[in-house]
């Protein structure tokens, strides 16, 4: 992994830098390119604009690594409220959650119990919960909880698998066997070469391989990438194997490659936009900066101007 990217990802975990950046108005302005606002009202308004353009959404209340049971319960209630608001407003959106926001750093049992509460509410509304994947320290525990909930509430919960991890070919096979919905991503965290492919070439090769396996046998897989080569490969594989566009979807992040999102919609593909909102945008934003150094230069230029 290039050292600039590793450095940026280390910053994501530095509280002192977080305080400096989040209190700076210029950075906040920049964050709003990637974050749909700080309140649920703003996020619902953005979602309805996306829907009007033919895009569906997945809403993410920003926050991760909570350290108190009280905060984990508050996040659980907040997610239930989001599901209620989605139903009441009629927008086309599901939700994406992070288990460390629901208490995974405190105990597996707490996270399982809070996640079950959210999944149960989603089921009551006929909606769906995607469990985001965090760093490799959490992979197995996240999958264990997701698989338990998938067995209890089939069709209501889905997982994310990261192509950069060596283990993912096996996890893709397992997920296909279980019939759980998978979002395939390249992976956004700083991982050692003990667990993850160090080069982009290897990650891209794994992504293609796993994408083909999911197109072949997966349950409505989601290919979450802005990489036009991967998107072209998915389209081509589906076309050659007679897999219709209704059997999978593409996903992209809010604020990134809007042109490509709309082009895919025009071509008849399902496209879902990941819409993060809330006040705790710093770790999310630093991961986006690490993915594209040009974004970092933009921030530095604006900080110097400000
Ligand atoms: C909907 C969605 C959900 C995700 N959920 C997770 C998750 O749960 N866990 C996880 O680890 N990761 C998640 N990710 C992030 C993912 O792992 C990658 O870090 C991210 O998508 C960048 O990789 P890429 O596939 O777009 O390809 P890359 O090879 O990194 O980039 C391809 C091209 O896309 C463009 N691009 C990529 N990133 C950016 C950016 N930040 N700003 C501007 N342009 C960019 C650039 O033009 C680049 O050349 C998610 C991504 C998406 C789209």
Concise structural overview:
This protein has one domain: TIM Barrel, CATH 3.20.20.220. The chain contains 13 helices and eight strands.
Write the SSE topology:
Layout lengths: L2 H9 L3 H8 L2 H7 L8 H13 L3 E6 L7 H21 L3 E5 L10 H17 L4 E3 L7 H14 L4 E6 L5 H11 L2 E5 L14 H18 L4 E3 L3 H13 L8 E5 L4 H9 L4 E7 L4 H10 L1 H13 L1
Parallel strand pairs: 1-2, 1-8, 2-3, 3-4, 4-5, 5-6, 6-7, 7-8
Helix pairs in contact: 1-12, 5-6, 6-7, 8-9, 9-10, 12-13
The structure holds flavin-adenine dinucleotide.
Describe the structure.
The protein has 306 residues and is an alpha/beta fold. It has a single domain (35-280), classed as TIM Barrel, CATH 3.20.20. It is 53% helix and 13% strand. It is built from 13 helices and 8 strands. It has helices at 3-11, 15-22, 25-31, 40-52, 69-89, 108-124, 139-152, 168-178, 200-217, 228-240, 258-266, 282-291, 293-305; strands at 56-61, 93-97, 129-131, 157-162, 181-185, 222-224, 249-253, 271-277. An 8-stranded parallel barrel has the order 1-2-3-4-5-6-7-8, surrounded by 7 helices. β4, α8 (168-178) and β5 (181-185) form a beta-alpha-beta unit. α1 (3-11) runs antiparallel to α12 and α8 runs parallel beside α9. The longest helix has 21 residues, at 69-89. The radius of gyration is 18 Å and the shape is globular. The two termini are 32 Å apart. Flavin-adenine dinucleotide binds next to β4, β7 and α12. Flavin-adenine dinucleotide (FAD) is lined by residues 132-133, 160, 162, 185-189, 224-227, 251-253, 256, 274, 288, 291-292, 295.
């Amino acid at each position: 992994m290039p050292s600039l990217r590793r450095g940026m990802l280390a910053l994501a975990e530095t509280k002192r830098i977080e305080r400096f950046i989040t209190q700076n108005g210029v950075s906040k302005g920049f964050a709003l390119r990637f974050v749909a606002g700080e309140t649920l009202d703003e996020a619902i308004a953005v979602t309805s604009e996306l829907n009007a353009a033919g895009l569906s959404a997945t809403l993410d209340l920003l926050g991760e690594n909570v350290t108190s049971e009280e905060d984990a319960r508050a996040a659980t209630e907040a997610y239930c409220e989001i599901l209620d608001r989605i139903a009441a407003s009629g927008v086309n959106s599901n939700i994406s959650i992070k288990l460390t926001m629901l208490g995974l750093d405190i105990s597996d049992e707490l996270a399982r119990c809070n996640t079950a509460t959210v999944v149960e509410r989603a089921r009551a509304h006929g909606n769906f919960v995607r469990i985001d994947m965090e760093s490799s320290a959490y992979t197995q525990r996240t999958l264990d909880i997701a698989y338990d909930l998938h067995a209890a509430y089939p069709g209501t919960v889905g997982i994310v698998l990261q192509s950069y991890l060596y283990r993912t070919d096996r996890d893709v096979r397992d997920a296909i066997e279980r019939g759980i919905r998978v979002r395939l991503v390249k992976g956004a965290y700083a991982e050692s070469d003990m667990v993850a492919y160090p080069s982009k070439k290897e990650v891209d090769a794994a992504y293609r391989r796993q994408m083909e396996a999911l197109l072949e046998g997966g349950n409505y897989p989601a290919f979450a990438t802005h990489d036009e080569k991967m998107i072209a490969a998915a389209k081509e594989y589906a076309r050659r194997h007679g897999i219709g566009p209704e059997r999978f979807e593409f996903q992209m992040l809010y604020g990134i490659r809007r042109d490509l999102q709309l082009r895919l919609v025009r071509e008849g593909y399902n496209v879902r936009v990941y819409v993060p909102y809330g006040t705790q945008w710093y770790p999310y934003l630093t991961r986006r900066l690490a993915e594209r150094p040009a974004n970092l230069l933009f921030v530095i230029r604006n900080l110097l101007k400000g």
